[in-house]
Amino acid sequence: MTAPMNLDHAPAFGQRNVRLDTLIRLRWLAVGGQTATVLVVGLVFGFPLPVPACFGLIAASALLNVVLRLRFSSSRRLSEPNTAMLLGFDILQLAALLYLTGGLVNPFAFLMIAPVMISATALPPQKTLLLASLVLIAATFLAIHHLPLPWYEGEVLELPLLYIGAVWLALTCSLGLMGVFTFRVADEARQLSDALAATELVLAREQHLSALDGLAAAAAHELGTPLATIALVSKELEREIEAGSPHAEDVRLLRTQTDRCRDILRKLTTLANEPDGHFDRMSLAQLIEEVVAPTRDFGIDVHVLREGSTPDEPIVARSPAILYGLGNLLENAVDFAETDVHVTARWSDDRVTIEIEDDGRGFSETVLDRLGDPYVTSRATRSAGGGLGLGVFIAKTLLERSGARLTFANRRPPKRGACVEAEWERAAIDLSRSPDAGPSFPA
Question: Which domain of life is it from (predicted)?
Answer without folding.
Answer: Bacteria
